[in-house]
Amino acid sequence: MYTYDYLYDFTKTVFLKMGCSRDDAEVIADVFLAAEMRGHASHGMIRIKEYYELWKAGRINVKPKVRVVHETPSTAVVDGDNSVGMVAARWSMELAIEKAAKAGTGWVATRNSNHFGIAGYYAMMALKYNMTGICLTNANPLVAPTFSISRMMGTNPIAVAIPAYKNPPFVADFATTPIARGKLAVAEKKGEKVALGFVQDKSGKPSNDPTILKSGGSMLTLGGDRLHGSHKGYCLSAIVDIFSAVFSGANFGPFVPPSVAYLPLLEKKTGEGTGHFFGAMRIDAFQPADEFKKKMDEWIDTFRASKPAEGEEKVLIPGDPEREAEERISREGISIVPAIKDDLLKIAGELGIEFD
Amino acid sequence: MYTYDYLYDFTKTVFLKMGCSRDDAEVIADVFLAAEMRGHASHGMIRIKEYYELWKAGRINVKPKVRVVHETPSTAVVDGDNSVGMVAARWSMELAIEKAAKAGTGWVATRNSNHFGIAGYYAMMALKYNMTGICLTNANPLVAPTFSISRMMGTNPIAVAIPAYKNPPFVADFATTPIARGKLAVAEKKGEKVALGFVQDKSGKPSNDPTILKSGGSMLTLGGDRLHGSHKGYCLSAIVDIFSAVFSGANFGPFVPPSVAYLPLLEKKTGEGTGHFFGAMRIDAFQPADEFKKKMDEWIDTFRASKPAEGEEKVLIPGDPEREAEERISREGISIVPAIKDDLLKIAGELGIEFD
Fold first, then answer.
1. Would residue A307 count as lying in a domain?
2. Cβ pair B66, B57 in contact under 8 A
3. Residue A106 maps to which CATH number?
4. ipTM of the modeled complex
């Protein structure tokens, strides 16, 4: 078991050694550790290797100049200058919050960025300003549209954070596929199979192999099959892709650059880098802030009191599982599976820093 | 088979007879017929009876004064004055478009409204202004959160319309359940069963009975079960509910008033009427308009060229099925099943107007 501080310092040092500024290394470490603490190990320490290898391959800019390229009172387009995704993302969300403070809402589309960790982190940045936060991102293509075997979209998550009064905030953060890609990576590392309904092989047949993406397979959209609404998951994923890429001028769909160095850069581009979309809405742009938050308390209390189905213990509010994980992991520490520890040891060795 | 004009005039006359203004009756008829033409009969003529019975029960205001109750440069809250939903909805979307023209984006939360037909209609209003349109609404509670048997949410649809250049626009319009409630009504009228995975009985057991909602059953969220991501469908539906109701001051979740007169009004209120949420974003608030639209063309062409799975004919773009329906129905006319025709004949008789 590791402590938060130990892994935070290690992660920060890795990115400092790669050449990031102290500020940038700190936000990057903060996002990695937030993923671990919130129980999303799939977006935590396991991913450091991917960023490290992208850096070694010269595919990521550790000295970026993030900048606004276009704006209106409530919108902006940001160029992330090929930064580590967390750097462009935090900068962009801060801008959305600034715009919302003046215009009621702020909406920022960001191009020329990279994988930014958990979307929920940025949505939650809005909470302390009494704002609702929204964050979308596209990602490298692994997901097939309904009726297709082509890998056209990422797992394209949606995160929405809404403040409450006495209750903890409502925080939804989910891939628009039945599972996030990272969950396949975790299953692979653990040597486990996955349930049917998540992936198909290269001919479109159902598969339970978490490594199937390496042999031409693809992930399915939320809903699973057409009868059960996979076309709605496809719509959602497409909306996230368009908001992230067409709005910003990033690469869309199948042209999003791989976030892993073992896949070559694509020859064709339809824009710059990976795209994100951020939104911030002042709650008092709609209702007096305290009234809004008390109504959210009532919403949360009402839904928490839903009657559980037979055999189920309780009904959850979006954000509950992550908060429960955070409480548990704060007590118990962060566990890292052996295969990931080996990766981190190797990186530490190469960078000449300590890890054990 | 009926012509567009015949049913449009009939619908308009029904609402004129109920006391609506000419303007209001025309937008109401326009939305009903748009549903029929786009192949969503579940939101078309079958629903006239519901509005008629709400009116007979004195539960809907045919002489509304729709008004703004709060605003910022990019936001507003609208009170629909218990109007027929289409009236408050068109008014609110027009306001969102006006705000977007000035601030880049416009966001309107509307309370004290009623069922408004197809969400896509309002999202599509933005297209001719070179804007992306968004429309959400809550609805009377029929859907259970993951792990629950309580009917806490409506089928809470999401509609997003994005303009393209030479291609028809991208138009996604979908319930956050595997199917829309209206599809159950259509199956019931036709005397058919439905597939498993859409509804559960009052104890939480799977059911194929489209009438199960009348005996305490509930609909499931997109994803179907927890393993396959029903919690993500629950998140989506919850987000739609909160944006529509907490932002606007409407009733949320289980307190949304029934859109059918055979269910009594609830004793408890958490706001006023049904809630909607509308968004408009100028595409040139992000990219030069023509560049944006040409990029959308490229997006559409790319996705249309995805490789179909074995046994599938082609991959669709959101909006394709509705456009294909519209072409077919324009040629062939609108078909109305006997049970619905009987309802319309009865209404015509009671209002003293013609229908055959």
1. no
2. no
3. 3.30.1370.60
4. 0.97
